[in-house]
Write a structure and sequence with these properties.
Mean pLDDT: 92
Order of helices and strands: HHEEHEEEEEE
Number of helices: 3
Largest sheet: 8 strands, mixed
Strand content: 35-45%
Distance between the termini: 54 Å
Low-confidence stretches: none
Shape: globular
Radius of gyration: 16 Å
Length: about 150
């Protein structure tokens, strides 16, 4: 586990090097998977990551999330072919914390939202067996109308 802890510190340093005022424009230019309340960008890159994960192929992506008026929450999702490391930088908020999660399984759950929308949730199952850690949720469209 020491190797993974050392490697997660490298991922944390990558996040620390991003500007404090990291914007949506910067995130899209850097090919981050961008999650916004209105639109999501570069979701195809996340789906490629998931395909690689399912095939056991190592991969790494950066995910940037924005709320209504707040700053960016940046994170790195890394898979080495065995273990998933998820490092979240929340230092642009008053909590001023980094969070690191280790897991070996990502769940994919489809749910209905407001009875007419479909959301797909991706969650990491931590190695310690604690509760699922949300990675991201993707709005997948409107539920088909029944005739």
């Amino acid at each position: 586990m020491e190797y993974y802890e050392d490697f997660s510190m490298q991922l944390r340093k990558e996040l620390e090097e991003l500007p404090r005022d990291y914007t949506r424009q910067m995130a899209t230019r850097n090919w981050d998977v961008l999650i916004d309340l209105i639109l999501n960008f570069n979701i195809g890159r996340f789906l490629i990551f998931m395909d690689n994960y399912n095939k056991g192929i190592p991969d790494k992506i950066r995910i940037t999330k924005f709320g209504v008026d707040g700053p960016a929450t940046t994170s790195i999702l890394y898979f080495d072919g065995n273990i998933v490391i998820y490092v979240v930088d929340d230092t642009r908020y008053p909590t001023n914390e980094f969070y690191t999660y280790y897991g070996n399984y990502i769940t994919v759950n489809k749910r209905n939202y407001h009875d007419n929308q479909i959301i797909i949730d991706y969650n990491l199952i931590p190695l310690d067996g604690s509760r699922e850690m949300p990675i991201l949720s993707i709005w997948a469209g409107l539920k088909p109308q029944e005739r």
